[in-house]
Design goal:
By secondary structure, this protein is an alpha/beta fold. Helices cover 57% and strands 9% of the residues. The chain is globular.
């Protein structure tokens, strides 16, 4: 027999023989009485916990309430106590007389825990809180320039304040600044509006269920165990209809969305419930979604383009002389007034003041934009590819074709479109995929990986953003990601380290 119960049993027998028999017998009787009391109290506590859980679920179904953290922790403790009671009964069946002798005070200790939980439940008050108490955080965004940008911003705000427009479409070519405009709208609404501002990135890989999940998570609606699209849509519709003065922003919409199937109560007859803003590359999509007002985001004019280029460039605090600045203006013009291209090219040229470097940049970009480089790609791709080609890193490279910085950048394209990528996870992937110098210690590799991400953010090929729980993340614009995936295909790096 195992010694784990024989030794305490023998010890207890010795105790009885030595003259403490009367005390031990009393302890056994107390065990039986306390066990009965424990099972009764535990059953009552579990019944109460079941009622609390049911009340919370009923409150959460509307999407307007979310369980208090205090209540959730209490339910966890109740489940833990319930498990301990079951384990005690199992031990009693296996060990019988032994557990009565060795752990005679266990039922009494568990009774104390049960009594504490019962007392705690009497001071809960409301079991759930209003999920709209927090209206959201400001989104990180670049500053924008130009009269057109400010006019579009004010025009959209006026439409929303007029109480006559329930849906607005913002369209324009990729990289022109639609998302940046929408982010500024989001942040202004947080300051001005009394309602909720809901931000959802739709992206190219769209499905009704996925969009429902994103909206539900944002407003605190629990869809666990519910797979029926129609029932989910009905619950979303009910919740959003009750969110007065709120605005739903759907960013990066690629195709027509049947809002009724999703559960969005957007109506041309009423603006009392949730209103809609979409950003898309297609005017046709704006019409299909039945946007009441449509606003086009156009490319920047020459002076506006130079202002944005110069503001991005000046973050390095390096002044250009007049001759170099003249060439820099010409480089800015080659970006075609496209905000994304301007920011990325200017980012790649930060810190450069030598006139020969700027002349070379102008010549290379001119060849790419004109198509004389033989690549045969679109203007936007060629401009973005120039910034990729300028990436260099003075550390050991694992490839003759790409340096370490470039390979790490290309690896970032393997993550989902518009996804927020946790920095720690990304650096770990760099290490596991052998992208970093394997001669370094793991700690040094982590430092190198974060330095690489900083570099990619500094040259504007990645964006910094806050992920779940305010974790530090990065993301890649879909045009930049498309460029990176095309490079991977051409260089036969097609998902080999996905």
């Amino acid at each position: 027999m195992a010694s784990w119960f024989i030794e305490p049993f023998i010890s207890k027998v010795v105790e009885i023989i030595s003259g403490d028999a009367q005390t031990s017998v009393k302890s056994i009787k107390d065990f039986e009485l306390n066990l009965k009391a424990l099972e009764k109290k535990s059953k009552s506590l579990c019944a109460k916990a079941s009622d609390v859980e049911e009340q919370i679920k009923n409150s959460e179904r509307s999407g307007q309430k979310k369980r208090k953290r205090e209540v959730e922790e209490w339910l966890e403790e109740v489940r833990s106590i319930e498990k301990k009671v079951v384990e005690l009964r199992t031990r009693l069946e296996l060990e019988g007389f032994t557990i009565r002798l060795t752990d005679g005070d266990l039922p009494a200790k568990l009774i104390e825990e049960v009594d504490r939980l019962v007392e705690q439940s009497q001071s809960f008050g409301e079991l759930a809180l209003d999920v709209y108490g927090s209206r959201g955080d400001k989104l990180l965004t670049n500053g924008m320039v130009g009269e057109a940008f400010n006019e579009n911003l004010e025009k959209i705000l006026e439409h929303l304040e007029s109480e006559q427009v329930s849906s607005i479409g913002v369209y324009g070519m990729g990289g022109v600044g639609k998302t940046t405009l929408a982010k500024h709208i989001h942040n202004r609404l947080l300051q001005l509006s009394q309602g909720r501002v809901i931000w959802v990135t739709v992206s190219q890989k769209f499905s009704v269920t996925n969009l429902q999940d994103k909206i539900a998570r944002f407003i605190g609606l629990d869809f666990r165990g519910e797979d029926n699209e129609d029932l989910r849509a009905a619950r979303l519709h009910t919740t959003l209809s009750q969110m007065k003065n709120s605005v739903l922003i759907l960013d990066d919409v690629w195709e027509n969305i049947d809002l009724s199937k999703v559960g969005c109560p957007i109506s041309v007859d009423s603006v009392e419930c949730c209103r809609l803003i979409i950003t898309t590359r297609s005017l046709e999509v704006c019409r299909q979604v039945c946007c009441q007002k449509v606003i086009e985001v156009k490319n920047l004019h020459h002076q506006e383009a130079w202002k944005l280029f110069n503001e991005t460039l000046r973050r390095s605090e390096i002044e250009l002389d007049s001759s170099t600045e003249e060439i820099a203006r010409s480089v800015a013009e080659l970006c075609g007034g496209l905000s994304l291209a301007i920011i990325i090219v200017a980012g790649s040229m930060r810190g450069e003041r030598a006139i020969h470097t700027w002349r070379n940049a102008y010549e290379e970009l001119t060849e790419r934009v004109s198509g004389k480089d033989g690549m045969g790609d679109g203007e936007v791709y060629n401009v973005l590819k120039y910034s990729f080609d300028r990436l260099n890193w003075n550390h050991h490279s694992q490839s003759n074709e790409f340096n370490t910085l470039q390979r790490c950048f290309l690896h970032c394209a393997l993550y989902p479109e518009d996804g927020e990528i946790n920095r720690e996870r990304l650096v770990s992937d760099f290490i596991s995929e052998g992208l970093l110098d394997e001669r370094k210690t793991r700690s040094s590799q982590f430092d190198l990986g974060h330095s690489i991400l900083d570099k990619l953010v500094n040259v504007c090929l990645l964006e910094s953003c806050a992920g779940p729980g305010s974790t530090e993340c990065v993301k890649m614009h879909d045009l930049v990601r498309g460029m990176a995936l095309k490079i991977r295909v051409r260089s036969r790096l097609v998902y080999e380290d996905a």
